[in-house]
Design brief:
The chain has 312 residues and is of the alpha+beta class. The protein has 2 domains: 219 residues, no CATH class; 79 residues, no CATH class. It contains 11 helices and 14 strands. The strands form 5 sheets. The chain has a 4-stranded antiparallel beta sheet. Strand 8 and strand 9 form a beta hairpin. The radius of gyration is 20 Å and the shape is elongated.
Length: 312
Amino acid sequence: MKKWIMSIGIICLIGALYMLPVALGERLTVKEDSPATTEQACEIFIEVEGQQEKIPLETYITGVVAAEMPVSFKKEALKAQAIAARTYALQSTNYGKISIAPTVARQVFYNKEQRKENWTSNFPGNEKKIVEAINETKGQVLLYNNELITAMFHSTSNGKTESAHDFSGNDIPYLQSVASNSDLSSPKFSAMKEWTLAEWNSLWPVKWQVSDFNRVQFFLNDSGRVERMQLGKNVWSGREVRTLLEIPSTDFKIAYNSTAGKVQVSTKGYGHGVGMSQYGAEAMASDGKTADEILHYYYQDIEIKKIDACLK
């Protein structure tokens, strides 16, 4: 997932981007507190592909937050990311029983050596800020009907997040579309990519003519993203086009610039758009919102509880 940006999200998660799980996590028991010695004895470890040893859950989350969100973000945004990442990790690994890739297909993870390399100018200060966010949310997860949610997240929306239904066809109560207008000020909100006509045609199973760019049809969903694109009898989903062209989002427009002799694709947003917008979270934190308020906004009707690792 790039460095932090390629979170994307989404958010956030290209495996999650293209195949939204419909089965939620197993039921869990929550607790208020437990002695430190008990927590250590029952600690959950995460097996990260490519790492020699299993990693304690909270150490793993430190590496995920450092990779998925800019350390310059407000602590409340970092805390929201920590809780979402912890929930996603436990749900997708079945509490550490299954390994997880440290990539955009799941969650990007940087070990301590990678963090030192990335933060050469201020490793101690940055590490302290991330660790504080992790410690202040230790063990906290997101639940819906007492089950771990699929805590999808992404870098930047197009001004509205994507619902699970529009993304995958599966309606999930806590993954509904919400306004995220502050994303318009994100540095990743808009982008442009260009190809010559020959380069463009090398990507497609059909040969485009210049006139085709005036007759191609776009069908949008409720959040303004491309649900499908049609050229004659050829139909592609917005997600298929995004993958084919390697563009940031499914909110895109395609045009042929005859003056430049280039095919131009403009996009809005960065990532799949489902769940929490990271730049939206930062804007809310800057407005004084807490991590809890951020999470309750982007994930509807959820609870934030602390897991009891001893009962796993």
